[in-house]
Every structure is written in C-alpha cells, then in structure tokens.
Here is the input.
Amino acid sequence: MKIKIFTVLAILMATLSTFSQENLNAYKYIIVPKKYDFLKENDQYKINSLSKFLFEKYGFETVMEGEDYPEDLIRNRCLGLKSNVVKESGLFKTKLIVELKNCYDKTVFTSRVGETREKEYEKAYNLALRDAFTSFEELNHKFEPSESHMAANEQLAEEKKSETAMEIQKLKEEIETLKQEKIVEVAPVEPAMEVEAVKQVDPVKVDPIKAEVVKETPKETISMEAKSGVLYAQEIDNGFQLVDSTPKVVYKIKKTGLDHVFLVENMNATLYKKGDQWILEYYENGALKQIELTIKF
Here is the structure.
C-alpha cells in the first residue's frame, strides 16, 4: 500500500514539474526588482543581485527593473515574468520563497521553501535564497517562442528593415544636398552678352637680316563685357573668393608673384587689373576670350 502511495506521489511531482517547465519555457525574461518587500533598502545584503545571478545560472535571461529593456520585451511585456522573494515567519529559521508572476499578476511558479538556521542576516538570506533556487535546477529552462511571438518578431524585423531603408535614403539625400551646396559654379551663364569679333592681320614685315618676307599668323581676339554686376572679394587661404549679391560664389582666385594678377581656380584662366577694370582672360577653342569684371575688394 505504501509503495503505491509513493508511486502516485512521484508521478504527481513529475507531472507538476513538467507542467511548471512547460509554463516557464513560454517566457523569455525574468524581471528582478531592485528591492524586496521584506528588506528596507535597494539590493540590501545583495539579495537582488544574487537573485539575478541565480536566475542566469539556471538558464534564464534577466533584466533589473528600471533598466533598459530589450525591444521585444518593450513591445510585449508578457514575454517576461516578474520575480519576487517572500520571507516566511520562522522562530529559529530564515525561510525564503521565490515567486514568478506573469503580466496579468498571476503566479505561475513558486519555489520550495529555502531555509537556514544561520543567525547573521546577510549569511542567512544568502543561504536560504540559494536553497530556494534549487527548485529551478532541474527545470532546464529553454525559451520556446509561440507562433504569435514569432509573428511579432517577423513584423519587428520588417519594421527595422523599413526604418533602416528610410534612414539610408535620408542619409543619401543629405549627402546630395551637401554636395550641391559645395558646388562652385566656375562661370555664370550670361543670358545676354555683346560679342565683338575683330580679326586683324598685321602688315608684311621684312626681316632685316635674312631679307626674307615674314608674315605673322592671324590672331583672333574676342572681347566680351560681363553683365553680371558687381562681385565682392572675400579673403580665403592664398587668395579670394568672388561672390555676387545673392551671395553666391562665382570665382575663386589665387595670388601670384605679381601685383593685381591672379590665377582662377578650376579654369585655365588669369585675372588681372587693367586701369580701373578687372579682366578675366582665357582661351576657348583656340580663341582668346576676355570678360570685364567689376570687383569690390
């Protein structure tokens, strides 16, 4: 008769253990509070830190209450169980029980009573808590996500992918905007310009030494008057940048060893002063071109 009773009890305990394990496997996180009710201070006697350590020892992912939670726990608080340690009254013993509650404040697991006869508080709480945690030793906890949780994870992954794509696109647009802002227009487009072309052929010259007739190659000079208005010189390294009234940078010029003579950046051109007028001079298709500029330094 006794053997039958023991057999039934063993089967019942095994069934309860399996049921508890299946329940706990549905949860991914254990949330450990900073303070238990029977203590006066946060993490007094290091009991809360010890709880976190022991949960992790037995295969649970733990977070301390008030810290940054993982993103999936933020989205679904029911993935976590809130832990609590309860002190039972005892005359000569310190007794502690570990409880786990779900997001609906329903207790889903209660440990065995951990106890000790140690009188010094810090040692007593440490020993009793470790004794209570032996209930988790045989659970072999392993998180098994439900279909709804996997669907939520897939949705979260898609959202992250979409957010990443949007961030990349935004970054590309910002880079393109910066590029456009840094573009320096080398020469402004003039809607109306007076172009006067004068072809000159010098008369025949005689070399007095060789007594031969030498004829110079005809030279084509194109004179152009700019209609862009006044440009203002702003000093930069090794020269100036010339801006209009917008203000927009029209040219960047570099100093040379000669007074009032500059090289034009990004153009095979020179800028020099002739009387009160500044002349921008360059070749285009073999023809010498000149643009008169009004510059305020």
Summary: The first strand starts at residue 29 and ends at 32. Confidence is low (pLDDT under 50) at residues 5-22, 191-206, 208-227. Residues 147-182 form the longest helix (36 residues).
